[in-house]
Design goal:
- The protein has a two-stranded antiparallel ribbon.
- It has a single domain, classed as Cytochrome Bc1 Complex, Chain D, domain 2, CATH 1.10.760.10.
- A hairpin with a 2-residue loop joins strand 1 and strand 2.
- It is globular, with a radius of gyration of 15 Å.
- The mean pLDDT is 88.
- By secondary structure, it is mainly alpha-helical.
- The protein is built from six helices and two strands; from the N terminus they run H-H-H-H-H-E-E-H.
- The chain binds heme C.
- The site of heme C (HEC) has 23 residues, from helix 3, helix 4, helix 5, strand 1 and strand 2.
Length: 113
């Protein structure tokens, strides 16, 4: 995992310096991923290999340009819903955090695949 940390962290820090605190995500790529792992998001979605759910790449490509998509996904990953997988209803459990910054970082991460 750690080999992924360096470059995105550097980019993140530069972005923070350029944009000023508040507007850029304070989470690194690997922090986003570990939160998503903890929340079981990779059980049904992978970055680019189809599983029970669409890949994050497909999700990003399909939704990136839609209006208000960040707000919609914010709600989607913080509320308990049901999804249908092979005709069976399964729980779409929310992200295991209530932290606004963390949730926004996950939404941004998904939409930038
Ligand atoms: C039980 C398997 C499962 C788990 C666990 C799961 N998902 Fe999903 N997810 C799906 C399926 C299936 C869909 C597509 C069906 C739908 O959109 O209703 C979906 C849809 C989505 C969408 C919307 C895609 C769109 O095009 O609108 C997002 C965003 C998403 N998931 C993110 C997450 C995140 C973040 C987590 C972790 C908190 C997560 N998922 C956990 C199965 C799962």
């Amino acid at each position: 995992m750690n080999k992924f940390v360096k470059a995105p962290a550097t980019v993140g820090i530069c972005a923070l310096l350029l944009l000023g605190a508040g507007s850029a995500s304070a989470l690194s790529d690997s922090e986003v991923k570990s939160l998503m792992k903890k929340s079981n998001c990779f059980r049904c979605h992978a970055e680019d290999k189809p599983k029970d759910g669409p890949t994050y790449k497909e999700i990003a490509e399909k939704n990136r340009d839609k209006p208000d998509i960040e707000a919609k996904f914010y709600k989607r990953i913080t509320t308990f819903e049901k999804v249908e997988i092979k005709g069976k209803k399964e729980d779409h459990e929310p992200l295991k955090t209530k932290d606004d910054e963390e949730i926004k970082a996950v939404v941004k991460w998904i939409l930038s695949r």
